[in-house]
Amino acid sequence: MGGDVKCPAGCGHMEYKKNRDLKIRAWDPLGSVFYLAGLILIVSYTEVGSGEFHPRAIVGMLLFIPGVYFSSLVTTDLSCNTCTGVILESKSIDKKLKGDLLGLSENKAEYIRTALSSSTEDSEYDCPDCSKKMSHIIVPIERERKAHEDPLLPDVVADLTSKSDTVKIDGCKECDLLWFKNAKSEQKISMDTAIITKT
Ligand SMILES: [Zn+2]
Ligand SMILES: [Zn+2]
């Protein structure tokens, strides 16, 4: 999208901002190696619930933390300067809304595009690109919920149970863009641990 983009909520201008999302993995030569090596050490040397840390688990943590940072996804998205609204365009939709590596869950981008084109519900917002009414969809997601909310333990170590949730999305199928009135709901569906189960 070029030129001056106005926020669909009517507050004013939107600007391209760089977003690093720590909850989405992207390939980075050094970051991914640190991430995986750290993760293996932590998983191998941590006894869940013991409250004690093996020295190798601590080394793992020292590799894992910078690994998470450098192997996280960076995208440039339109953000509103006034509200917390954010727009994802084609490139970001493909990068952020993936399925899992094994293909056990739906590819989120594909699911959303199909849902948008068959949606009969109009959004209350106009598309900032073509000015037509966007469509409104509700996307069911499963989110992993941690039983131990220990900030030191990475998600994989903690006992995982899943929780059903939904995310409301407005989007324009013609322009291939998604509008999130609240950036938090964008983060909620984008994170790698949020999946759409296959039916
Ligand atoms: Zn706004
Ligand atoms: Zn449009």
Folded structure, characterized:
By secondary structure, the chain is α+β, with helices and mostly antiparallel strands. It is 30% helix and 32% strand. It is built from five helices and eight strands. It has helices spanning 29-45, 55-70, 90-96, 108-118, 183-190, and strands at 14-25, 72-80, 86-89, 122-126, 133-146, 160-172, 177-180, 194-195. Strands 1, 2, 3, 4, 5, 6, 7 and 8 form an eight-stranded antiparallel β-sheet that branches. Strand 2 (72-80) and strand 3 (86-89) form a beta hairpin. The chain is elongated, with a radius of gyration of 19 Å. Residues 7, 9, 11, 80, 82-83, 85 line the site of one zinc ion.
Describe the structure in brief.
By secondary structure, this protein is an alpha+beta fold. The chain has helices spanning 29-45, 55-70, 90-96, 108-118, 183-190, and strands at residues 14-25, 72-80, 86-89, 122-126, 133-146, 160-172, 177-180, 194-195.
Provide the list of bound ligands, each named once.
zinc ion
The string of secondary-structure elements, in order, is EHHEEHHEEEEHE
- Tell me about the largest β-sheet: 8 strands, antiparallel
So what's the overall shape? Answer: elongated
Number of helices: 5
Overall helicity: 25-40%
Distance between the termini: 34 Å
| Radius of gyration of CA atoms, rounded to a whole number | 19 Å
Low-confidence stretches: none
Number of DSSP E strands:
8
Mean pLDDT: 90
Structural class: alpha+beta
Please state roughly what percent of the residues sit in beta strands, choosing from under 5%, 5-15%, 15-25%, 25-35%, 35-45% or over 45%: 25-35%
